[in-house]
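User: Here's a chain of 55 residues. Predict its fold as tokens.
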Amino acid sequence: MSKKPLAKKLRLGKKSSQTRWAPFWTVAKIYRRNRVHPGRHTYVKRSWRRTRTKS
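Assistant: Prediction complete.
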């Protein structure tokens, strides 16, 4: 098994955090009283099945 370079590990770490939903308390802050899924207002919606990364 080969060792990954540190720069690549850092890039992959950043990409893995882009798959998460926004925190639940931001829903009330943005939409007030409406019930909305926190995945709706995340900046980057990325899935390891849908899209490939260039890192």
